[in-house]
Design brief:
Shape: globular
Strand content: 25-35%
Distance between the termini: 43 Å
Number of strands: 14
CATH topology of one domain: Rossmann fold
Oligomer: single chain
Strand order of the largest sheet: 1-3-2-4-7-14-13-12-9-10
C-alpha cells in the first residue's frame, strides 16, 4: 500500500516545525540525510527582519543533505552562549545584528506604506538596536579558537559592526548593498579545498559590499556586476568570500544568500557543502 500523507497531517507537521523555530522556546533539530557516524552537530542562528527563517532553513537543508551532520536551528539570538556552543562543532549564522524592540510598520524597510496612514503620528519610529553582547562575541571567539568551525553567511557581516571581537573572528564587516540584480561570482583561489572543482557562476541576489580585514591570500571569491552597475562609489566589484584558520579552528564567509534561489545556484550549493566539510576538517 503506498505511503500517503494527508493534507491535515502535512499542515500539522509544518505548524509544529514552524512553532519550534519561531517560538524560541527550543531548537528545531533536523538530522541531515545520511548517517551521523561522527556525531557532528551544527548550531544555526538564522532569520531577521529582512530574511525569513523559513527560506533559510529550507535552503540550508540542501547544504547539509548527505553531510552526516545534525543541525539545530533557532531564531532566538539570546541562546547564543559559551555553554550552548560547547555542544557543537560548527556555528553557522545568517542574520544581521539588529533587533527592533518597539516594532515597525510595513513588511520591510523598502516600503513607504506606513507613511500613508491617517494616524501615522500614533506610531513610534522604527529604531533598531544591536543584540550581540560582548559575552556572546567572546563565546564565539573561544569556540573557534578551541578548534571548531564558524560559517558566516550573507548579511551576517552586519553583526561585526556592533562588536570588534566578533569582527576579529568573522574577518570583516558589512558596508551595504544595491537591490537584487544579476552579478557574476568568480573563484579567485581555485587551490583552496573549498573551491577545488568549483567554477564561476551567475547569481541574481543582493551584491553585498564588505570590508575585509585579514590577509588577502585568504580571499576565495569576487563578485562583479557585468553590466557595469556600481554601488555608491565602490565600483562594480566586491569581495564575496574568504576562508582562514583562526586559532585551532576555521572561519568561512560567503556573501550570496538573500533568497533560496541564490543559495541553490548549483555551483554555489556545491561550494557551501565543501565549506561545511572544510570547517569540520573533513577536507
Amino acid at each position: 500500500m503506498p505511503f500517503l500523507v494527508s493534507r491535515r497531517s502535512l499542515l500539522r507537521d509544518t505548524a509544529l516545525r514552524g512553532a519550534a523555530l519561531v517560538s524560541g522556546a527550543g531548537l528545531l533539530r533536523l538530522a541531515a540525510s545520511g548517517q551521523n557516524v561522527n556525531g557532528r552537530r551544527a548550531f544555526a542562528l538564522i532569520g531577521d527582519r529582512y530574511h525569513n527563517a523559513d527560506y533559510i532553513r529550507v535552503a540550508l537543508s540542501k547544504v547539509f543533505e548527505g553531510q552526516g551532520v545534525t543541525v539545530d536551528y533557532t531564531i532566538d539570538y539570546t541562546r547564543l552562549s559559551r555553554s550552548l556552543l560547547s555542544n557543537y562543532q560548527l556555528f553557522l549564522c545568517l542574520r544581521d545584528g539588529m533587533i527592533w524592540p518597539n516594532g515597525y510598520l510595513g513588511p520591510d524597510a523598502y516600503t513607504s506604506y506606513e507613511q500613508g496612514l491617517e494616524n501615522r503620528g500614533d506610531f513610534a519610529e522604527a529604531k533598531p538596536q544591536t543584540w550581540l553582547t560582548e559575552e556572546q562575541a567572546v563565546a564565539v571567539k573561544e569556540f573557534v579558537t578551541a578548534g571548531n568551525g564558524f560559517y558566516s553567511l550573507h548579511n551576517n557581516s552586519h553583526v561585526s559592526l556592533s562588536s570588534p571581537t566578533y569582527r576579529d573572528v568573522m574577518g570583516g564587516a558589512y558596508i551595504g548593498h544595491p537591490p537584487l540584480r544579476p552579478f557574476k561570482v568568480r573563484v579567485v583561489n581555485s587551490r583552496h579545498p573549498i573551491t577545488q572543482g568549483i567554477t564561476d557562476f551567475i547569481v541574481n541576489d543582493e551584491q553585498h559590499y564588505v570590508d575585509y580585514d585579514k590577509d588577502r591570500k585568504n580571499i576565495l571569491l569576487e563578485a562583479e556586476n557585468l553590466d557595469g552597475l556600481t554601488y555608491e562609489k565602490l565600483g562594480a566589484k566586491s569581495i564575496a568570500g574568504w576562508a582562514y584558520d583562526y586559532g585551532r579552528g576555521r572561519v568561512v564567509f560567503t556573501s550570496p544568500g538573500h533568497t533560496v534561489h541564490a543559495l541553490w545556484v548549483p555551483e554555489y550549493l556545491k561550494l557551501q557543502k565543501r565549506a561545511v566539510q572544510w570547517l569540520l576538517k573533513e577536507i
